[in-house]
Amino acid sequence: MPVPRWAEGLAAPVPWRQTSGHAVYENPWVRVTEHQAIAPTGAPALYGVLRPKHLAAGVLPIHADGTVTLVGQSRFPHRNYSWEMPEGGVPFSEDPLAGAQRELAEEAGLAARTWREVLRMELSNSVTDERAIAWLAWDLSEVDKDPDPTEVIAIVRVPFMTLIAEIDRGSIRDAFTVATALRAYHMAREHILPGWLAHAMLTRV
């Protein structure tokens, strides 16, 4: 992983050290491990880690008119309803982009000709080793949907700036969606995206 430029030349950080570890729970999707460890300060510590068995892959689909497609579904951990970009788990053995393309089709009924990877994240890295990759996608066309048997998915198409406003208002809290949308906003404002696309995203309200 690249080191930030401001950290170049600094003394190497002291890492955590593991003295023992074992799995305390496992199912087809996650494993929970417990560890006896030594902290960077030298203090002994007990540490639990949630280890997903899939990579998180997500895509923010952007239409030519500056709208984006979001999906809504009930989420179990918080017992809430969440509006998100299409996202899901991709087996580590699968190409991440292929997994993101599948999620876009299954959840939103869309395919895209243009894909751009924009973000790599470590989600809640104090308690889990879950990793995530996000893309922006455009040049969209409709395909058949095929949601997971456990999913009841609603689909909405809203202006990109409406998505940003709802993030500001606190009505959209999915961290992966929030980070990807704000990254897209930055890219549009800084002329990193194609000009016609950035103009549509920033002016459609």
Automatic annotation (TrEMBL):
Lineage: Bacteria, Pseudomonadati, Pseudomonadota, Alphaproteobacteria, Caulobacterales
UniProt cross-references to InterPro entries, sorted A to Z: NUDIX_hydrolase-like_dom_sf, NUDIX_hydrolase_CS, NUDIX_hydrolase_dom
Protein name: GDP-mannose pyrophosphatase
Family of the protein in this entry: Belongs to the Nudix hydrolase family. NudK subfamily.
Catalytically driven reaction(s): GDP-alpha-D-mannose + H2O = alpha-D-mannose 1-phosphate + GMP + 2 H(+)
Superkingdom of this protein's organism: Bacteria
One Pfam family from the record: NUDIX
Cofactor: Mg(2+)
Organism for this UniProt entry: Brevundimonas subvibrioides
UniProt keyword terms in alphabetical order: Hydrolase
Record GO biological process: nucleoside phosphate metabolic process; ribose phosphate metabolic process
GO terms for MF: hydrolase activity
Record keyword Transcription regulation present: no
PROSITE patterns for the chain: NUDIX (PS51462), NUDIX_BOX (PS00893)
